[in-house]
Amino acid sequence: MTNKENLPTAWVTGGSSGIGLELAKRLLKDKYQVCIFAHAGIEQAIADLQKHSPAVCGFEVDVQNESSMDAKFSEAAAMFGTPDLLINSAGISIAKNFDEMTSQEFERQININLVGSRNTAHAALPFLKQAVQQGKRPKLVFIASAAGLVGCYGYTGYCASKFGVVGLAEVLRMELRSQKIEVAVVCPPEVDTPLVTEERKHGSPVTAALKQLGGSMPVEKACKEIYDGIFSSEFMIIPGTQARILAKISRVLPDVYRSQIDKKLDKIIRQRM
Question: Nearest CA to 59 among 47, 81, 32, 41?
């Protein structure tokens, strides 16, 4: 299949489940050609996406391995052309207290969430530059987290990685601006995805309780706001009113924010004990 109709093209990493899969569905409905990239679940995701449009293809990748991404991005470009939009949604979370988390678990989150975001952007950059030369205005979107803006109990590895993703996006926004490549970062609160469902089975109940300060959103509702934000001029996209208020208070009144968080955390821990 090739881009014979000159349709816009989107690449979505982590596109086989959760936020990535839902955004891919919305792109297909809006007449995009979509290439998804994921570590697992490609065949099932493609079958699901083809219910919306046949203009979809999938590639198995490991975002920790940039050379494999170079190869798969080349295949995707040969199939559908250069991307108008790249969404990096690949990520994992391991909700454990710092003293319970192994160095391997910590590093795995850094390597997939942060280094994987770097690898995705770096491997895609030549194709994004080609898109500019073809008269497109491509956009690079990172899916970070509200945990990349404020700390959360039990999330040392996850917060460290997602704070890094926000920082990466901030700098790339500046560096790529003159090259006519737009950059945005998405910082959602808890979204009801398979990743969160799995986390609830094994994660800290204190983490689960504290996360509700930012709210929890169904994936369809969160992705509608994310999708609208992607096609706006916003750099930082925070779905959910509750999460936006929390992020603003933490930024404008950090001492007040930390005081209130500590009181809430102490109460949660007392109740658990």
Answer: 41
Q: Are 185 and 236 in contact (CB under 8 A)?
A: yes
- Say yes or no: domain 9-272 is CATH 3.10.20.30: no
Where does residue 135 fall: left (phi above 0), alpha (psi -120 to 50 degrees), or beta otherwise? left
Please state the pTM of the whole predicted model. 0.93
| CA-only gyration radius of the chain, Å | 19
Domain ranges of the chain: 9-272
3-state secondary structure the chain: CCCCCCCCEEEEECCCCHHHHHHHHHHHHCCCEEEEEECCCHHHHHHHHCCCCCCEEEEECCCCCHHHHHHHHHHHHHHHCCCCEEEECCCCCCCECHHHCCHHHHHHHHHHHHHHHHHHHHHHHHHHHHHHHCCCCCEEEEECCHHHCCCCCCEHHHHHHHHHHHHHHHHHHHHHHCCCCEEEEECCCEEECHHHHHHHHHCCHHHHHHHCCCCEEEHHHHHHHHHHHHCCCCCEECCCHHHHHHHHHHHHCHHHHHHHHHHHHHHHHHHHC
Q: Are strands 236-237 and 182-186 parallel, antiparallel or unpaired?
A: parallel
Identify which of 152, 174, 176, 175 has the alpha carbon closest to the alpha carbon of residue 163: 152
Q: What are the tens digits of pLDDT across the range 231-258? A: 999 999 999 999 999 999 999 999 999 9
Q: Give per-residue pLDDT as tens, 66-86.
A: 999 999 999 999 999 999 999
CB 244 within 8 A of CB 191: no
Distances (CA, A) of 72 to 20, 65, 77, 97: 17, 11, 9, 36
